[in-house]
Design a protein that fits this description.
Elements: H1 2-26, E1 41-44, E2 47-50, E3 55-61, E4 64-69, H2 74-84, E5 92-94, E6 97-101, H3 107-144, H4 150-183
Antiparallel strand pairs: 1-2, 3-4, 4-6, 5-6
Protein name: Ribosome-recycling factor
GO biological process, one term: cytoplasmic translational termination
Pfam families: RRF (PF01765)
Length: 185
């Protein structure tokens, strides 16, 4: 029972960290990267699909993304979808390719993005702590039901605390890395 609880708690903590990584990837820095368009959807024959399913996305240079739709009629739709997403991008089509230049970030915008990043990190830490609380609750219930001994409960709580500490350190590393990325000009 205890090893299974530790395993599921650790798995859920990893999922929280992965969710944070995905959220941080959406916060754009001054550099271009293709992942920034991952959550943009395009109307394709009546249904919304991710942009990567209707176009080839490449980096033209450090500050420009190239989007090349596989079907010519999709150029306008893809361009509109990129413009309408909440990333503040201004795509321009040139023949069969859409160029998406990444605007430079102002100092004020960088500081706003750092606040957003810290908020995301705090949310991830809260999620990890909630997982610790839930796991400790299960241990207390097992102790009350007399399915585990007090020593086993204490050891398991220590192990879960170690998992929590490890996850928090990982989150702090990710936040520091993203902050550093945002402050680079």
């Amino acid at each position: 029972m205890i090893p299974e609880l530790k395993k599921t708690t650790e798995h859920k903590m990893h999922r929280s960290i992965d969710a944070l990584k995905a959220d941080l990837a959406k916060v754009r820095t001054g550099r271009a990267h293709t992942g920034i368009l991952d959550h943009v959807t395009v109307e394709y024959y009546g249904s919304p699909v991710p942009i990567a399913q209707v176009a080839n996305i490449t980096l033209i240079d450090a500050r420009t993304i190239g989007v090349q739709p596989w079907e010519k009629p999709m150029i306008g739709k893809v361009e509109k979808a990129i413009r309408d997403c909440d990333l503040g991008l201004n795509p321009a089509s040139q023949g069969e390719i859409i160029r998406v230049p990444m605007p430079a970030l102002t100092e004020e915008r960088r500081k706003e993005l750092i606040k957003v990043v810290k908020h995301e990190g705090e949310g991830a830490k809260v999620a990890v702590r909630n997982l610790r609380r839930d796991a400790n609750g299960h241990l207390k219930d097992a102790l009350k039901a007399k399915t585990i001994s007090e020593d086993d409960e204490r050891r398991a709580q220590d192990d879960i605390q170690k998992l929590t500490d490890k996850a928090i350190v990982e989150i702090d590393k990710l936040l520091a890395q993203k902050e550093q990325e945002l402050m680079q000009i």
